[in-house]
Amino acid sequence: MSGLEKKCKKKMVPLTGNYAIAAAMRQINPDVVAAYPITPQSAIVEQFARFVANGIVDTEMVRVESEHSAMSACIGASLSGARAMTATCSAGLALMWEMLGVASGLRCPIVMPVANRALSAPINIHCDHSDSMGARDFGWVQIYSESAQEAYENVFLALKLAEHPDVQLPVMVCEDGFITSHCVQNVELHDDAVMKRFVGERKPEHSLLDLKNPITVGAIELQDYFFETKRQQEEAMGHALKAYLKVGADLSRVTGSKYPYFDSYGLEGAEAVIVTMSSAAGTTKAVVDRLRHDGKKVGLLKLRLFRPFPYEQVRDALRKAKCVGVLERSFSFGAYAPLFSEVRNSLYEAGKKPKLQSYVFGLGGRDLLESDVEEAFKELLAGKTTGGMEYKGLR
Amino acid sequence: MMAAKFPSKEQLKRKCGWREIPAAGIITRAASALDHKTGSWRAFRPVIDEKKCIQCAFCAAYCPDNAVRFVKGKRTPINLDYCKGCGICAQTCPVKAITMVEEAKFG
């Protein structure tokens, strides 16, 4: 596929988000990949299985019977000291639920690309963020990617962040199902040797295979120590917030891209701001360009890191705006939508606050049109907020 | 923070804080299960009929808690500090020398 299997120097190639992620996995050459196929993630694992079959990587590929088993196998491998990866989405991610908490609780630096897809019912294979948003409190770091290029580079960022000695947490790299996972974009692949050097070797502090220093993993902790162990996990999330920028700076020297908590697009002097994540940011940028050309003071904050959430930085970026709209692809039934909730939380301590509006769009893969974003900007510019949830693209 | 050593008995006794324990509840000291006498979990006690026992060592091989062992060709008595009363020994005994008796009967 597109010369993907050849050793590569830095080059621009047409790739889907899934193939770009598979290319990153080839360059990482993890010790273990245990995965189960699910649309729209399948192509990641299919392409990677091809690399294994053709001897391009020396990964142990475990073809498991379910996602619950995929994550279980990754946890076992990770605890043995191996670099373990998998990929999933939607119902597959839901079936992993129990093991997601085990992976983070046992501090396994597993990296998992997620091709965001709606959750049943009704059954739907297309993009929204209900799957990873549902998993937002499971102790995983979550990075969201706008494009195939970002998805590709975020896998490296995720790996080094996960394995950072102060972090030791699993990381999800999210891309929009079909919109990013299946659409072909120009992707600049970086040099194999350079990326190999960047990822280096994992140096686990403990390993189940270290017979000279035997350990017990997964022992019971009741009222006596469970709370303390969980407090450490929260501390690690705090470390992840700092380490994200440090690892990002290291990766930046290799790729030339930047890895901030969020991208600011026309935020300087913007009166109306849209906050969104993933591919919707591309659509929003086009609208920002057009409206800015017409002299309208609009801007975009594209969040990359959702867990841990950079509250302070988001507050500082938004406090001067007049009106902020949060555009997101997920509900939190009976509560404010997840991204809106966090943006609202981050502004609580700001002295002068912008007005806020929650917009939910694109559930089940419904397109977000430029006209939807433009309409939202016009409402925000007019300071029109409703105090409740509003919808774009809903009939 | 991952580098914390497994707490000493003194630290465990005074219930040390979250900064003092290894991450993820990993136990780096061997045989720490000896600190936890789980015999009080038992609802049924295995009672061995010494006359029937043929010293085959099945019970010792199957016991998940090492509460019965085989030392120098001979079965040890059951260590009631650790026996949880699971009854696997009674199930596996080929001559039915082990009976599970309700713990309440021992007063």
Short key terms for the protein model shown above:
heterodimer; A: 395 residues; alpha/beta; Rossmann fold; 2 domains; six-stranded mixed β-sheet; four-stranded mixed β-sheet; 12 helices; 39% helix; 18% strand; B: 107 residues; alpha+beta; Alpha-Beta Plaits; two-stranded antiparallel sheet; two-stranded antiparallel ribbon; elongated
Distance between the termini of chain B: 48 Å
Could you give the order of strands across the largest sheet of chain B? 1-4
In the CATH classification, which architecture of the largest domain in chain B applies? 2-Layer Sandwich
Shape of chain B: elongated
Structural class of chain A: alpha/beta
Q: What is the annotated CATH architecture of the largest domain in chain A?
A: 3-Layer(aba) Sandwich
Oligomeric status? heterodimer
Main beta-sheet strand count, sense and barrel state of chain A: 6 strands, mixed
CATH class categorisation of the largest domain in chain B: Alpha Beta
Percentage beta strand of chain B: 5-15%
The coarse silhouette of chain A is: globular
How many beta-strand runs of chain A?
A: 15
Give the end-to-end Cα distance of chain A, rounded to a whole number of Å: 40 Å
CATH class of the largest domain in chain A: Alpha Beta
Largest sheet of chain B: 2 strands, antiparallel
CATH topology (level 3) name of the largest domain in chain A: Rossmann fold
- State the largest interface: A-B, 27 and 15 residues
Q: What is Rg of chain A?
A: 21 Å
Q: How many DSSP-defined strands of chain B?
A: 4
Q: What name is given to the CATH topology of the largest domain in chain B? A: Alpha-Beta Plaits
Question: Can you put this structure into words, describing what you see?
Answer:
The complex is a heterodimer of chains A (395) and B (107). In chain A, 39% of the residues lie in helices and 18% in strands. The model of chain A has no long low-confidence stretch (mean pLDDT 96). In chain A, 51% of the residues are buried. Chain A has two domains: 11-255, Thiamin diphosphate (ThDP)-binding fold, Pyr/PP domains (Rossmann fold); 262-392, Rossmann fold (3-Layer(aba) Sandwich), CATH 3.40.50.920. In chain A, strand 6 (141-144), helix 6 (148-163) and strand 7 form a beta-alpha-beta unit. Chain A contains twelve helices and 15 strands. In chain A, helix 1 (17-28) packs parallel to helix 6 (148-163). Chain B has three helices and four strands. The mean pLDDT of chain B is 91. Chain B is 14% helix and 13% strand. The A-B interface holds A 105-107, 165-166, 168, 205-206, 213-219, 221, 224-229, 231-232, 235-236, 239 and B 1-3, 15, 17-18, 21, 23-28, 30, 32.
